[in-house]
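Follow-up to my earlier ticket, as requested here are the two runs.
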Amino acid sequence: QPVLDQNDPEYLEQRGAARGRSYEADRHQGEGRPLRRQRLEAERGHWSVLANPVTMTPVPLYPNSHNMDWWDGYPAERREVLASLSGVRNPVVLSGARALGVASVHDDPPGSPTVATEFLTQGIAHTTAYGEDRISILINFLPGWQTYDLLEVGYARATVTLDAFVVDFMSVRGYGSDVLEPATRHSTWRVADGIPGAIRVA
């Protein structure tokens, strides 16, 4: 499956650059664009899964603001990726983030047809900061977002069949102490074959 990764050997060979180049430039810009399109558009699987290090769905917390650490800071490049995703079967984006999240990925403006489903999960060692509960509430009201939680720590597991792509978010308590508590299921989300967008089922 395609991976948006600045350290991919084929990516590096294609653009002829050293590994020390800017992280943002590697991920979003430059000669990697044609290769990125080729990989996405060559997908012929029943589920087309794109692994991605940062959030694809925009988080416009302030008017006319762009987060340069996420894809909404690179609208032209984001549109290219979405155009490629719209041409493959059952696109699902798996993203790294500082939150647990589910979103329906669509092009601008908000309200455009859903292109793909995005699942976010943070590292199990993620620690929360003051005020993140309020940020989570705000993001949950933004277009495309079905859930966004900066306070949950854990991991996600996916069960993939021909009929559905099902993701369980597992919550782990006790990080920072001597003993981690057993993982418990936070929520379960299902993407049906041929229908972009996730539905919470548990």
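Run two:
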Amino acid sequence: GKTPLYAVKLMPLRGRWFDFEVNKYGVMSIKLLDKRPRILLTTLLRALGYSSDKDMKHVLGEVGDLRLLDNTLRRDTTTNTEEALLEIYRKLRPEDSLNIENAKIFLDNIFFNKRRFYLGKTGRYQVNKKLGITSKITEEDYLLNKMDIVHVVRSLIQLNNGERQIDDIDSLANRRIRGVGELIGDRLRIGVLRVEKNTRDR
């Protein structure tokens, strides 16, 4: 039969949930915005500063079989950080004028802006536990950082290589239960961000 494909879901306290996925051709990608094309995970890693193929292989070092990385690199038309930032911006904001500064701010806002993506204390504890990060947790760690994304990509490869244990999706330990207050707060936050964006666009 077919080998099952596994994904890694990143669920913050506040903000969008991201699925890091592999398709049937063994290509890894992520959907950063609805109704926009998927972004290759190698393009994302390049945009975050792991500029060359060699940099990526070095930072993902503890993985036995790098076939998924090689498959994805073959589809990746970018060759350095600048190209990767522009490629992501071009795909996700085609209506905006293309420049490197805007592209960098745009990507930073998706993952590293406290108002848009916030792990919180529990989120950080869970991420560290799942990804085997042993450093002491401080309040600064309630935000995502670049190495977290590297760890997520590494665990996605390990899962699909059979080098890592699969989570039981039905276990409450792997569920995020959202309270009414959180849901209302979330809608309000989205509303405020929309008003802000509309004001800027005008």
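The only thing I checked on run two: The longest helix spans residues 180-201. Let me know what else you need.
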